[in-house]
Design brief:
The chain is an alpha+beta fold. It folds into three domains: 88 residues; 105 residues, 2-Layer Sandwich (Alpha-Beta Plaits), CATH 3.30.70.1820; 56 residues, no CATH class. Helix content is 54%, strand content 14%. The chain has five helices and seven strands; from the N terminus they run αβαββαβαβββα. It has a four-stranded antiparallel β-sheet with strand order 2-3-1-4. A three-stranded antiparallel β-sheet has the order 5-6-7, with helices on one face. Strand 6 and strand 7 form a beta hairpin. The longest helix is centred in the first third of the chain and has 88 residues.
């Protein structure tokens, strides 16, 4: 009996220890669950914050997009206004190529006199000095052996149109008619063109690039518009902007 009691006493601490170990294990599991719960809450909060940020960023981007569209539209309007003013300022201009400079530093008065002699040699005698606002030489953008071009600006449209209508007579003009002496008169060749605004000149250059590939026989500029024509008898296509040229190219490429 005494021995049995002693065994009981020995077993009591073991049970007590097991209970303590179980409590420690349970506490660890509870702590681990708390950590996981905190981690899940943290991630959830982070996701909520990110979602709020995403929504706010999307709203801000939409506001900026609308403002950008407004600014872009205003820029396009300003560009169109500048181009229109520029085209208008070139409206009464012609550009004369191939007239040699008599003087190294040619004055505006001398250039006007050359223009008047040229117009007379072309058979246009009803254009007077009063019809010319200014005439001057313009330097070439690239080094060239050719004389600098002359830009002549008229004060009225009719005077310009008379000169443009008589351009076929340029082949009959001789250098001595302009008071110019040349060692090889046969090399004398004068040409007269519309003086194009830079935006129109760019449009002409681009139109020339697609002329042959799209079957246009003729491409020329008139009144600061670009004209395209397939044959002598086909209708004339008139272009004022690069967008109109792009639309034409897309239309040509579309299946029929």
């Amino acid at each position: 009996m005494l021995k049995f009691d002693e065994n009981i006493k020995k077993q009591k601490p073991s049970k007590s220890k097991a209970i303590e170990e179980h409590k420690d294990q349970s506490s660890g599991e509870v702590y681990l669950c708390d950590e996981r719960s905190e981690a899940i809450d943290y991630i959830s909060n982070q996701y909520d914050n990110f979602e709020k940020f995403r929504q706010q960023a999307t709203q801000d981007i939409q506001v900026l997009k609308k403002r950008l569209e407004t600014i872009s539209k205003k820029c396009d309007e300003i560009t169109e206004a500048i181009n229109a003013a520029e085209v208008y300022s070139y409206k009464y201009n012609i550009k004369i190529l191939g007239v040699p400079q008599i003087e190294e530093k040619e004055s505006a008065e001398s250039t006007v006199d050359l223009c008047m002699e040229l117009f007379s040699a072309m058979g246009v005698n009803d254009v007077s000095l009063q019809d010319i606002d200014i005439a001057h030489r313009v330097s070439s953008r690239r080094p060239s052996s050719h004389p600098n071009a002359i830009v002549c600006k008229f004060v009225r449209r009719l005077a310009k149109e008379k000169i443009m209508a008589a351009r076929k007579q340029l082949s009959n003009v001789k250098p001595d008619q302009l008071g110019i002496e040349m060692a090889f008169p046969s090399s004398f060749r004068v040409r007269v063109f519309d003086h194009l605004a830079p935006c129109t000149q760019t449009l002409l250059t681009e139109a020339k690039k697609i002329q042959a590939s799209h079957g246009f026989k003729f491409c020329w500029a008139r009144n600061n518009q670009i004209c395209l024509r397939r044959t002598e008898n086909s209708r004339i296509i008139r272009l004022k902007t690069l967008q109109e040229l792009t639309n034409l190219i897309e239309k040509e490429a579309a299946p029929r």
